[in-house]
Amino acid sequence: MRKEGFAVAQMGPVHLQDSREKTVKRLVEMLTEAQSRGATWVTFPELALTTFFPRYVYDKPSEYDPFFEEATPSKAMQPLFAEAARLKIGFYLGYAEKTQVSGTVRRFNTSILVGPDGSIIGKYRKIHLPGTIEPVGDPEFEHLEKRYFDVGDLGFPTFQTPAARIGMCICNDRRWPETFRVMALAGAEVFMLGYNTPSRNIHHNEPVHLREFHHRLCLQSAAYQNAAWVMASAKCGSEDGFDMIGGSMIVAPTGEIVAKTVSEDDEVIVYRCDLELGAYIRRSVFDFERHRRPEHYQAIVNQVGIELPE
Ligand code: CDV
Asked: Does ligand 1 come within 6 angstroms of the Cβ of 196?
C-alpha cells in the first residue's frame, strides 16, 4: 500500500459582486480543513477566483480583463500560496490567465499545480473549450468560453510530485476520453480537474439528472479505463440566479466513487488513496504495454470529424 490523503474542495456560488479577497478566504478555510483532516493535496474548482463570467456577454477587453490574473501567484492568490506552504499542502487551482506569448496577448482558462513547499510544479491550459464565440442571444444558454479564451497550448502534461504523478484537465475536457488516455500514457496516477457545469445544457434541452449522470459517467470511466484516481471539484449552486451542478467526488481506479459532496456549497471531502491500487490494475487488465494496439487507432489522431470509409 502507498496511501496518501487527497481532498476535493467544492465551492458554492461566487457572485459577480464578490471580491477576490472574500473568495480566496473561503479557499484558505477549506485548505485548512483539508489539512486538518489528513490531506496533503487539495483540488479546487475551475475559475475558482471569480464568478463563471463566460456566461455574460462582454465586447471589450476592458470589460472582461478584470476577471483575469496576470501573475502567478497574483496578489489575490498570495494568501492561499502562503497558507499552503505553511501547512505543507499542495493544491490544484483553476483561474483565468492573461499572459503574453511571443509578444501577443493571450488569455487562457488555466489550472496550476502548486507543491507542498509553495512552488509551482506545473500548469495546464484548457483545450476543449465549450460554447460559442458569438452570443446565442438567450442569457439562460450563453456560454462564451470560445470568445474569451484561446485554446490551450501546453498539451496534457503530467507532473511528478512527492505523492504521485499528477495530470490536470478542466471541466469540458472530462467529456473527451482522449484527455485522460494521453495523461495516462504519460504516467498519470491521479487526474485533478475543476468544473463549472450549468444545470441547463447549452447544447440541447437535457434534464438535470442526465447532466449529473453524464458527469459521473465520464469520471468513473476515466478512472477505470486509465487505472487512475480522479479528483473532481465543482463550483456550484446558484451564481446570481444561474444554477450549476455539484457532485464533486473522488473516484478510485476501480471506477468506484469513494467520496462525494452532498451540498451545493463550500464542502471538503477527503480520502486516503492507495496509489498501489492503480499500479496493480496497470500491471494487469490495463497493462498498456501488453494490450494496446495503436496501429489500429490512427483515426483518433488523423481525423477530427467522422469520415465514412469509401
Ligand atoms: N465550464 C465548462 O466547460 N462547462 C461545460 C458545459 C458548458 C458543457 C461542461 O462540460 O460542463
From this structure: yes
